[in-house]
Amino acid sequence: MLLRAQVLVCGGTGCLSSKSKQIKEAFVENIKALGLDNEIQVIQTGCFGLCERGPIVIVYPDQTFYSHVAVEDVPKICSEHLLKGRIYEPKAYKEATADELAKIKSFGEVGFYNKQLRIALRNCGVINPFDINEAIGKNAYQALGKCLTEYTPVEVIDIIKKSGLRGRGGGGFPTGLKWELCAKNHADQKYVICNADEGDPGAFMDRSVLEGDPHSVIEAMAIAGYAIGATMGYVYIRAEYPVAVERLEFAIKQAREYGLLGKDIFGSGFDFDIDVRLGAGAFVCGEETALIASIEGERGMPRNKPPFPALKGLWGKPTIINNVETLANVPVIILNGWEWFSSIGTEKSKGTKVFALGGKIKNTGLVEIPMGTTLREVIYDIGGGCPNGKAFKAVQTGGPSGGCLTAKHLDTPIDYDNLTALGSMMGSGGMIVMDENNCMVDVARFFLDFTVDESCGKCTPCREGTKRMLEILNKIIHGQGTLEDITALEELAHMIKDSSLCGLGQSAPNPVLSTLANFRDEYIAHVVDKKCPAGVCKALLTYVVTDACIGCTKCKRNCPADAITGEVRQKHYIDPTKCIKCGSCIQGCPKGAIIVK
Amino acid sequence: MKTLEELKKIREEAANKINLRTAKNGYRIVVGMATCGITAGARPVLAAFVDQVAAKHLDNVTVTQVGCIGECAVEPIVEVYDTEGNRTIYAEVHEPDVETIINEHIMGGKVVIEKTIEVIKSKKEEVL
Questions:
Q1: Is the preceding omega at residue A306 within 30 degrees of 0, hence cis?
Q2: Distance between CA atoms of A58 and A5, rounded to whole angstroms?
Q3: What is the C-alpha separation between A307 and A287, in angstroms, rounded?
Q4: Separation of alpha carbons A479 and A473, rounded Å
Q5: Set of chain A residues whose Cβ sits within 8 Å of the Cβ of B35
Q6: CB pairs under 8 A between A and B
Q7: A564 in contact with B at a CB cutoff of 8 Å?
Q8: Do A85 and B63 count as a contact with CB atoms less than 8 A apart?
Q9: Which CATH fold would you assign to the domain A132-342?
């Protein structure tokens, strides 16, 4: 009998860590036990995107969407759904967006997905990344074939240029122009590098593309090689992405076996091969010259530009460096035409962008939206808004290089130029939502702490400057800041931006500058009133017992620091000098009589 | 692999397998597969539908299963939904009937009157 159903189990890193491998094995076992193994197939795919609800299982052809699946649920799903055709309701997905309807949704109906346009993620969660045939079934390597047999390298570059594709890794440089600059430089050897050194805290779209659809990147690198005249490509990927590395290496091996990499591809005389280089996970190695140094075996530190890598790159040869997500767009542009791609998006930002939606948001996960979608649509319609009825406060885009945007920016259409104009940036696509309980000074400190850690130390402004900024922020958070500190912070920030060597230092002050611009009153509250309005900075909090106290002595017994005094049936008192602000008194109080000021 | 034709061949073979995972907008054939349906022989019927749909390259047709449809006495029951959501219920569908339903209804757009639940039930009443 032919296959009548397929069970797709998410095999992205997120779901794998919640035992999706065991879930897949349990499906195989149970289906076999029911004698259905010749009619139902189980496939482990890449990331489905809605990581918040993982592990996710989708049953086709009826598109039933199961979320939060545990190994124990598998026998029930098999006996109820796969054998008897009844959806196993306890695990069927019910939407969690603004208009909460407790209705079972099929995959095609889930609001999280149907507002998205998946181009870079087109095959993630649809195909088995270990099966090159499935990728080919979804048109992989068709574009490469088309380029090699129908187009000249100049024509390929022209298509990419006209499509308006811009780099998805942060800078937003036009991809076609980058290719053209490199193609014009003559050399005996050129290189194509795929930058998979994804380092923004919370961003994981490049990992997901490599885990879910590695062939799209391999194919695009070969197309890029043909366009610029390179025969060798490297994927620079961090070793802390073991699943992506395994699937990528397996895919490269399969592509070689099929003759889609190697000598004389499609009989066109064009040779291309790819090697994988593992990075140790330094944030600075996402910067292209530092990345090149790291591949060459040097310490990963940036150098001055020019000369740009398009002229003098890897081992002194002309090199192009494209980010994973950028490359994943290339084959579709070739197949569907530049007119199609440039019809999506805004005037200067074409196509789609993948965002890793995280923080205080209901639907945490990976979303791909057309450029020009507003922040509001992403946060409320797709993300479902802030959980627990909390008020939205800010959204941070662009990771440690980006900035915070507020409620008044929510209707901004997302594109490169709009975000930059507002003092943030597209970056690689981290999007962290914050609610009323987030302290913006603390958020700025978090990102700065990250860049201080990741600064390579080569140039003084970044090495010393960011460290001084962090010291000032720590002072403010501990209630020892002054108004002069805020001025000094701003001055330092501008100086570091202007004088740092590479993008890391030039953008490191952005989180501070944008929170200062949009939430200055919070900084003032910290230094003048010595208060943290969001109630986050511990040193600025005071725990007080109100008159609602009935003297039950519970808080006194709970307090680990013996900071609470008081007799039975008498109002209690917290000694602020002894209080360690652990909050255990609040948790225990039956009357809600303890408040934080 | 050295030619585009070889790639095309692999693509067609694989596409058939992946086709199950793409949303379709044509007819939807639903086979009742509760205990009663399975006992009455719904499983080979479901298999026959899947085979026929693939053999005839009806890429836009979904074949799926549901639980108990309710009229256990006339199982196996098969429902066919057209693109406008109109429902035709067939009863006592056995393997030989599958090809007739595919040919006449799915491909020809004509309901197989003699296998509809109404006709089957009225025949039964006549016997009683």
A1: yes
A2: 10
A3: 15
A4: 10
A5: 84
A6: 99
A7: no
A8: no
A9: Rossmann fold (3.40.50)
CATH code for the domain of B76? 3.40.30.10
pTM of the model: 0.88
A542-596: CATH class: alpha beta
Contact list, A6 vs chain B (CB under 8 Å): 20-21
Instruction: Tally DSSP H helices, then E strands, for chain A.
Output: 25, 18
Is B15 part of a structural domain of the chain? no
Eight-state DSSP code of residue B41:
T
Contacts of A557 (CB under 8 A, 6+ apart): none
Q: Closest Cα of chain B to A449: distance in Å? A: 45
Compare CB distances from B62 to A1, A61, A149 and report the shortest one's residue.
A61
What letter represents residue B110's amino acid? K
SS3 A236: strand
Residues B51, A2: C-beta atoms closer than 8 Å: yes
Residue B105 lies in a domain: yes
Residue B108: its H or E element: none
Task: Spell out which residues of chain A touch residue B23, defining contact as CB-CB under 8 Å.
Answer: 63, 108
Domain ranges of chain A: 5-109, 132-342, 352-435, 440-529, 542-596
d(CA A449, CA A452): 5
Task: List the beta bridge partners of residue A305.
Answer: none
Element of type H or E holding A218: helix A214-228
| Distance separating the N- and C-terminal Cα atoms of chain B | 67
Which position has the token pair 């199961």? A66
Per-residue pLDDT of chain A (597 residues; tens, 9 = 90+): 578 889 999 999 989 999 999 999 999 999 999 888 888 999 999 998 888 888 999 998 878 889 999 999 999 999 888 988 888 988 888 764 434 444 566 666 677 887 889 999 999 988 999 999 999 999 999 999 999 999 999 999 999 999 999 999 878 999 999 999 999 999 999 999 999 999 888 899 999 999 999 999 999 999 999 999 999 999 999 999 999 999 999 999 999 999 999 999 999 999 999 999 999 989 999 999 999 999 999 999 999 999 999 999 999 999 999 999 999 999 999 999 999 999 999 999 999 999 999 999 998 999 999 999 999 999 999 999 999 999 999 999 988 889 999 999 999 999 999 999 988 888 888 999 999 999 999 999 999 999 999 999 999 999 999 999 999 999 999 999 999 999 999 999 999 999 999 999 999 999 999 999 999 999 999 999 999 999 899 889 989 999 999 999 999 999 999 999 999 999 999 999 999 988 889 988 999 999 988
Q: Do B18 and A138 touch (CB under 8 A)?
A: yes
Domain A5-109 has CATH 3.40.30.10: yes
Residue B7 in domain: no
What single letter denotes the amino acid at residue A326?
T
Q: Which CATH architecture has domain A440-529?
A: Up-down Bundle (1.20)
SS3 A502: coil
Distance, CA of A81 to CA of A499 (rounded, Å): 62
- Residue listed under structure tokens 């990147």: A217
DSSP A11: -
What is the complex's ipTM, to 2 decimals? Answer: 0.80
Give the structural domain span for B63. 24-127
Helices (H), A338-482: 338-342, 375-376, 416-421, 440-454, 460, 466-477
Sequence-separated (6 or more) residues with CB below 8 Å from residue A136? A215, B7, B10, B11, B14
User: Taking the CB of residue A391, how many other CB atoms lie within 10 A of it?
Assistant: 11
Task: Please report, as a single letter, which amino acid is at residue A568.
Answer: V
Residue B9 lies in a domain: no
Q: Does A592 touch chain B (CB under 8 A)?
A: no
Number of domains in chain B: 1
Rounded Cα distance, A442 and A477, in Å = 7
Q: Which CATH class is domain A352-435?
A: alpha beta
